Amino acid sequence: MKQTIKYTAFLFSIFFATSLSAQNKHFFTFNPVFTIEKEFLPELLVGADAEANYCNAANSKDVSIKPFIEYAPINHLIVAADYRVKYEVEDGESAWQGRLGVSTTGEYYFNNLLLDCRLKYTLYTDDYDEDTKDQNFRTRFQVQYGINSIGLTPYVSYEWFYNIPRRLVDRDRWSFGVDKKISNRSSIGFEYQLEKYFNNEDPLENDIAEHVFSIAYTFEL
Q1: Number of Cβ atoms within 10 Å of the Cβ of 195
Q2: Residues 24-46: pLDDT tens digits?
Q3: DSSP tag of 60
Q4: Which of 89, 98, 103, 221 is least surrounded, with the fewest CB atoms within 10 Å of its CB?
Q5: DSSP state letter for 173
Q6: With b meaning 16 or more CB within 10 Å and e meaning fewer, what string describes 42-55?
Q7: Burial of 93 (0-12, 13-18, 19+ CB in 10 A)
Q8: Which residues in the chain come in under a pLDDT of 50?
Q9: Could you tell me the CA-to-CA distances from 218 to 95, 102, 166, 193, 204 in Å, in that order?
Q10: Rounded to whole angstroms, how far apart are CA atoms 63 and 85?
Q11: Which phi and psi (to 5°) does residue 64 adopt?
């Protein structure tokens, strides 16, 4: 186990250093998240996320709340919907933003190993470019492994964003994290996320990397 942790830390260090050197512009964001959820049936989960983002970019911060619902109609399949309301401030200007998301996730367990693939559609309810609404089709692959003896679950995922109005992939995201069960009803998680923006309409804004460091607390009612 110690050797595995050492190799993982070494590979992560190489990945992080490579990501810093490969991009032209970098932003660093701290992201605290609080989640409360309730399982009404074995196949039905309802909850809400509250989170904030503090970015090193000048005067850039936001807070948001996102109620969600997940339903598993059959084994290995989850359908979900959420609606996020966000208040953001950037360069002294503030705005409200809404985002609707619907998704389908297929998952497969092999002992303590979980493999899943999520397909998600997101629609922003405010206008970005006159009458064009920002829409994305997102594909995410995730692998996680539960270490039951210590209540620890490390995971890694990769996701890309297909911009529907522009008909191209303009963003992708790597996530590395670990969740720790601290009681029967609560857990805490830590995550590093590298989100890269490319194929931007403004060529001066190409090759942007956002490094997000998250701490998340989840409470089950």
Answers
A1: 18
A2: 688 899 999 999 999 999 999 99
A3: -
A4: 221
A5: E
A6: eeebebebebebeb
A7: exposed
A8: 1, 3-4, 7
A9: 28, 22, 36, 19, 39
A10: 9
A11: -150, 160
Identify the three-state secondary structure at position 4: helix
Calculate ∠ Cα 178-71-33, nearest 5°.
35
Whether the Cβ atoms of residue 159 and residue 176 lie closer than 8 Å to each other:
no
Report, in angstroms and rounded to the nearest whole number, the Rg of the chain calculated over CA atoms: 18
What six digits make up the tokens of 91?
């360069």
- The reported pTM is 0.85
**What's the one-letter identity of residue 62?**
D
Q: What architecture is domain 2-220? A: Beta Barrel (2.40)
Residue-level pLDDT at 186: 96
pLDDT at 26: 85
Beta bridge partners of 173: 159, 195
Contact assessment for residue 196 and residue 205, using Cβ atoms and an 8 Å cutoff: no
Residues 6+ apart with CB under 8 A from 17: none
| pLDDT value of position 176 | 97
* Residue 45: per-residue pLDDT: 97
Task: Give the domain ranges of the chain.
Answer: 2-220
CA-nearest of 30, 8, 2 to 155 is: 8
